[in-house]
Amino acid sequence: MPKVNIQEINQLIEYHLGVRDVKDNDRLLEDLGAESADLANIVASIEAKYSIMVTETEIANLYTPKDIFELIIKHLHES
Q1: Which of 22, 45, 59, 67 could lock onto 10 through a cystine, CB 3.0 to 4.6 A?
Q2: Domains in the chain with CATH codes
Q3: 22 neighbors 32 (Cβ within 8 angstroms)
Q4: 5-29: pLDDT as tens digits
């Protein structure tokens, strides 16, 4: 099972959004300025990196880096 930590998720978001100092509870849209295409790219990256599949319903419930982290953990424990 791949290891995951919240700092990796924050760094991935920083890379995709071109921002710095992403915090666990920053809101992707409101605080970090992500758009739907950005979120789609972030999800595609985590799907590839962690070999998981994220559903549309799950994507709609991703508001913060912490949400993404918890979703990855959930998927890794299911497999």
Answers
A1: 22
A2: 6-78 (1.10.1200.10)
A3: yes
A4: 999 999 999 999 999 999 999 999 9
